[in-house]
């Protein structure tokens, strides 16, 4: 039904990928200025390859990212940035809820389907809203204290170390609503822009396939896709699940279920392109790990975005050769 016109989907896919990288960079300490952009691009894309094949949602990539990013940032800062990105994804579900709300208000086909999609967006955003409200109160340190109170010798022996690391993590998390709130808002802005482009990508596919409903169909599909991605993150790539739920959702809305399936399969194009690009980046990760070995780090003072993110005193001659 699309033929060679599938090439048109390359443009929104590449733009969305760039927005993802920019959001990821904004979450790094000092807005990630210490790390070369192309290196960060390769690390993020390599992580995306693991996200697509591991049953861990968007969290399967953290180990491989940590192996390289510790050359520039402390582990607590890397973990804090990962939580920032997760919170940004959750909060953007509130933005995604606007589409179903409009479709409901306009009585688009079956209003019940729009109401259910609206509810799914709000529910998947709630954890992020709750966490944002708790980060000022030492949330991760409290969790660590609870773990330290467990009657397990392994946990007790590492209690002090866990508490120290948790306090550093808290510092990075609390900065999202403190002295680095502009960086967090920057991340949210890139996430929202990426989601807007995603809706444009879906609308383009809807138009190419000749599916009725236009923009309203696109925003409803976007809301459904986000809910499936987050609720079924344990399914690698949501392969099969997204297609089946797309078919059922279209039938529930009052559209042709075959069109829902066709739309999901068409948008798999971006998934396949991303898989090829990401696995190319993943294949080069051993080279990056060798070139940028982990360093010991000092935590920059809060509010000092220009502070050096790592302790250069531990830099070896081999590190200097690659600087």
Describe this structure in words.
The protein has 15 helices and no strands. It has helices at 10-27, 37-53, 62-69, 75-96, 98-105, 111-134, 139-148, 153-157, 159-174, 181-209, 214-231, 241-253, 257-283, 285-291, 317-322. Helix 3 (62-69) packs across helix 4 (75-96), helix 4 packs across helix 10 and helix 6 crosses helix 11.
List keywords for this structure.
single chain; 323 residues; mainly alpha; 15 helices; globular; disordered C terminus
Number of strands: 0
The fraction of residues in strands falls at under 5%
Determine the N-to-C terminus distance.
50 Å
Give me the number of helical elements: 15
Structural class by secondary-structure content: mainly alpha
Radius of gyration: 21 Å
3D shape: globular
Largest sheet: none
Rounded average pLDDT: 79
* Order of helical and strand elements: HHHHHHHHHHHHHHH
Layout of helices and strands, plus pairs?
Layout lengths: L9 H18 L9 H17 L8 H8 L5 H22 L1 H8 L5 H24 L4 H10 L4 H5 L1 H16 L6 H29 L4 H18 L9 H13 L3 H27 L1 H7 L25 H6 L1
Helix pairs in contact: 1-10, 2-3, 2-13, 3-4, 4-6, 4-9, 4-10, 5-6, 5-11, 6-11, 7-9, 10-11, 10-13, 11-12, 12-13
Offer a concise description of the structure.
With 323 residues, the chain is mainly alpha-helical. 71% of the residues lie in helices and 0% in strands. It has helices at 10-27, 37-53, 62-69, 75-96, 98-105, 111-134, 139-148, 153-157, 159-174, 181-209, 214-231, 241-253, 257-283, 285-291, 317-322.
